[in-house]
Design brief:
The complex is a heterodimer of chains A (about 450) and B (about 230).
Chain A lengths: L21 H13 L4 E2 L13 E3 L20 E3 L8 E3 L3 E3 L9 H13 L4 E2 L7 H6 L3 E5 L8 H6 L2 E5 L10 E3 L6 H7 L7 E3 L8 H15 L6 E6 L3 H10 L4 E5 L8 E2 H6 L4 H14 L7 E5 L5 H9 L4 E4 L1 H7 L7 H6 L24 H4 L4 H25 L13 E3 L2 H7 L18
Parallel strand pairs in A: 5-15, 6-7, 7-8, 8-11, 11-12, 12-14, 14-15
Antiparallel strand pairs in A: 1-13, 2-16, 3-4, 9-10
Chain B lengths: L1 E4 H14 L9 E5 L16 E5 L14 E4 L15 E4 L15 E4 L12 E7 L13 E6 L15 E4 L10 E4 L3 H14 L9 E5 L15
Parallel strand pairs in B: 1-2, 2-3, 3-4, 4-5, 5-6, 6-7, 7-8, 8-9
Antiparallel strand pairs in B: 9-11, 10-11
The complex binds flavin mononucleotide.
Flavin mononucleotide binds next to helix 11 of chain A.
């Protein structure tokens, strides 16, 4: 008997709203208490259709597999051969995405360079400019050309092995950067030419060009300055992949980097991360279609990013037509980010291992997304580099395992015909048949 | 004096020739004829040479300049002198949008007017405009000086950091967090130096100084409307 209900009338069970969930309610309370939107790092946390909704079929009577340890399955890729004198040759098609010095510590950038170089791939600078640590430890370094132009200078530009013009990021298509005062150390402040300790906003739009016609001229200028030697990539968010890919190619890009909404960021508004952009699975086929329509597939390379975690993801991205992938979040986890060994400290910060995303606050217990000298000491760049190399090797082996099972002697030979989809959504987005059928929504010349 | 006819040898050959000049070159005077508004003329220079372009230029002339002096005997297209590091650019005519965008150092002088977003995100460059500048000039300006002998358009110095703006005429409106500042002796000194270097005869005491009110440096909910 309930003390509020002496007559013993049965109660309905307490029920949580599917609309006003505990998560949502905590958002509302936080907003009410602070008056500012929530800023965090990482990518979309909501569940979206993804590569997990695709499966490879493997070999059968009509397709025979390659022998695991004997028959070769190549993994190399060349990026930027169309216009550049010195294209980038990679041993594996998994690159390290651009992550800013400022968001990451100097030793973390060094570890990314070490790991990538040991695995035969490239790494990328980020907002804030190029540091000697990462140039020194990266065999192949892609230099990002961002709207903020923090730290941008022609000497570093000429030291780069490729240039990546950043138009957008999957986590925040149309948004700029944010680096809060806590992380503006003397070194970061000096590189960015800003006072120490202030909040830094990185512009969302390039200061000296807008639109595809200007982009073509900007690419011309960068090529002239670097003597047409290095490839020029254009990075776009997964917003309008068909048109953005088309326009980037027409503007003269050597490669297109396409970043889906699961893609991580150092910091931006949570509302941006969760509600703007398209899932990585949804953007590959339109981009590949654009390349094919212009006769540029495999001539201009497509590098896909946003939530790539395993060799299976790599294989699926490549089967749908990408030439390579890029990883950000997964690389940080390989270095030790969000490791449960720091659980007690995550708890002190009001979070738990795996959920820690307040990277902008600079208190990372793992010493990776921080500029605090004491926290930074916890991170060993040599050990970090080794871990990243191991992880890249595992991903590559996994992708090769799948490719061999599908009878492919190069990862690039994987094709959409190797795949089926588990859901109608994934079938429609990837344009591969729903498992057990020969149909996907939108398939030409079918009635349904 | 070395003369290059751009229509004859083309952009790549011209820039290659200029890029080949070392710190120690004794061929310091170059003249480019028939520019015909081409883009990316004399960008990425890094030697103490003096290049004179006989005519108007397109986008990004003298972009990322280091050490060199580039004279434009005509008007200059968008993004002229973008990300200039050092050296000098002198434009005899008018300048289009984004003049000296993100420039880190050096001096840009415009004898005519400069269009919108002049000195956008400037990071140390000095820009002296004899005429007027358009809207959103020095947007997010970080450091360096923008001197305007005429008038400034809407939203001067919006969201600026530590850059200084000196305007002789009127300012149509100030951007978010940009305010009028006291002109102290040290500022008169700086301004006088810049006017002298630009070869412009103007009385520093007639100028007003503007700069950041520094209210947006760290987020404050009471300023949310200004973000
Ligand atoms: C800590 C961090 C910093 C980042 N900084 C940049 C940056 O400076 N410039 C940029 O274009 N992208 C930046 N990104 C996005 C990555 O380049 C990439 O698009 C993204 O991480 C890919 O998705 P993933 O994290 O799911 O692998 C950053 C991402 C992270 C996680």
């Amino acid at each position: 008997m309930n003390k509020h209900d002496p007559k013993g009338i049965p109660h309905t069970t307490p029920r949580q709203s599917a609309t006003f969930t505990q998560d949502i309610n905590s958002d509302i309370r936080r907003a009410a208490a602070t008056g500012i939107y929530d800023i965090r790092g990482g990518g979309a946390k909501r569940k979206v259709p993804s590569f997990d909704d695709l499966l490879f079929m493997g070999a059968s009577i009509s397709r025979y597999p390659l022998e695991g340890y004997r028959e070769k399955c190549e993994t190399s890729v060349t990026i930027g051969g169309l216009h550049a004198e010195n294209p980038i040759e990679l041993d594996i098609p998994i690159t390290i995405a651009g992550m800013s010095f400022g968001a990451l510590s100097g030793p973390a950038k060094e570890a990314l360079g070490r790991g990538a170089s040991a695995a035969g791939t490239s790494t990328t600078t980020g907002d804030g400019g190029m540091t000697p640590e990462e140039r020194g430890h990266s065999d192949k370094l892609v230099y990002q050309y961002l709207p903020s132009r923090y730290g941008m200078n022609p000497d570093d530009l000429r030291k780069a092995d490729a240039i990546e013009i950043v138009v957008g990021q999957g986590a925040k298509p149309g948004g700029g950067g944010m680096l809060l005062g806590q992380k503006i150390s003397d070194r970061v402040a000096e590189m960015r030419n800003l006072p120490k300790g202030i909040d830094q906003r990185s512009a969302c739009r390039h200061p000296d060009w807008t639109g595809p016609d200007d982009l073509e001229i900007k690419i011309l200028e960068l090529r002239e300055i670097t003597g047409w030697k290095v490839p020029i990539y254009v990075k776009v968010a997964g917003a309008r992949p068909y048109y953005d890919t088309t326009l980037a190619i027409k503007a003269g890009a050597d490669a297109v980097v396409l970043d889906g909404m699961q893609g991580g960021t150092a910091a931006t508004q949570d509302v941006f991360i969760e509600h703007v952009g398209q899932p990585t699975l949804a953007i590959v086929r339109p981009a590949v279609q654009a390349l094919q329509d212009l006769g540029m597939h495999r001539k201009v390379q497509l590098i896909l990013s946003g939530g790539i975690r395993s060799g299976a993801d790599v294989a699926k991205a490549m089967a749908l037509g990408a030439d390579a992938v890029a990883i950000g979040t997964a690389a940080l986890i390989a270095l030790g980010d969000n490791d449960p060994k720091w659980e007690a400290e995550y708890n002190e910060l009001g979070t738990t291992a795996g959920a820690y995303d307040d990277w902008h606050e600079g208190q990372d217990p793992a010493g990776i997304t921080t500029q605090d000298p004491e926290l930074m000491k916890r991170f060993d760049p040599i050990e970090g580099g080794r871990r990243l190399r191991n992880y890249l090797k595992v991903m590559t082996l996994e992708a090769q395992t799948i490719a061999r099972a599908c009878g492919k002697n190069h990862l690039h030979n994987l094709e959409p015909e190797d795949l089926v989809a588990l859901t109608m959504e994934a079938a429609a987005m990837a344009k591969v048949p729903l498992a057990g059928t020969d149909w996907y929504p939108g398939k030409p010349n079918t009635s349904y | 004096m070395q003369t290059i006819d751009l229509q004859d040898i083309g952009l790549r050959e011209m820039n290659k020739t200029l890029h080949a000049q070392a710190d120690t070159t004794n061929q310091t005077a170059w003249e480019i004829v028939n520019p015909k508004g081409a883009h990316a003329i004399a960008c990425g220079l890094d030697a103490p040479i003096e290049v004179t372009v006989k005519g108007s230029t397109g986008y990004y002339c003298a972009g990322m300049n280091q050490q060199a002096t580039v004279n434009i005997h005509g008007s200059a297209g968008p993004g002229t002198g973008e990300n200039i590091m050092s050296g000098k650019i002198i434009i005899e005519g008018d300048a289009s949008q984004y003049l000296g965008a993100t420039g880190h150092g050096g001096l840009i002088v415009v004898k005519g007017n400069a269009s919108s977003r002049c000195g956008i995100s400037m990071k140390g460059v000095n820009i002296v405009v004899q005429g007027s500048v358009g809207h959103m000039s020095a947007f997010m300006g970080q450091s360096g000086n923008l001197v305007v002998c005429g008038d400034a358009g809407d939203a001067l110095g919006d969201s600026c950091y530590e850059a200084r703006f000196f305007v002789r005429g009127t300012v149509k409106s100030l951007g978010a967090d940009c305010e009028k500042k006291e002109m102290r002796a040290e500022h008169i000194e700086i301004l006088k130096g810049l006017l002298d270097e630009a070869g412009i005869d103007a009385d520093p005491s007639e100028f007003t100084r503007y700069g950041s009110a520094r209210n947006l440096y760290n987020f404050d909910v009471d300023n949310a409307g200004a973000y």
